[in-house]
User: Fold C4-dicarboxylate ABC transporter from Staphylococcus nepalensis.
Amino acid sequence: LAVTGVTMGKYLSIVMPTAIISMLALSVYCTVVGRRRKMNPSQFATDIMEDIEAQPLQTKFSPRVKLGVLVFLLGVGLILMFGIFSDLVPTFKVNGETVKLETTEIVQLFMYMSAAINLVLVKLNTRDILDSHITQSAIGALFAVLGPGWLGATIFTAPGNKKIMIEQIGGVIQQ
Assistant:
């Protein structure tokens, strides 16, 4: 859709709400499906209290964990910056032609960089990564975001649909 003047900002204004709605819908679904039915309320309260008492509450995080979160958020911020301000995207001369990095390449570049810094410099314990609750939530969010993205890519890249998108829908968006 770039040939019709649809910028990354316009694209993100459509995709971000869709992703947030998908994640919220997945969260509600997991909450409703994962909830135990026909449980004695006193037994439920006892189970919750046992879980709370069994696990000490960790209110302070180590500097390594804070650095890891900061590196990840910095990567996300840079992706958004390059996505919204497309003039900042690096360009290269290849065989005399100026080539610009694609958005997918920028996302991969910064996410791989974030993962490498977290694994090497922050020295995260790789065994704990898959066992953490955030990883399990991220995998659920991954399906919630990539599912509609895959569907959209299938629709947008089909040759017959591409012509309609550029000529008809692109004209409507430009107005």
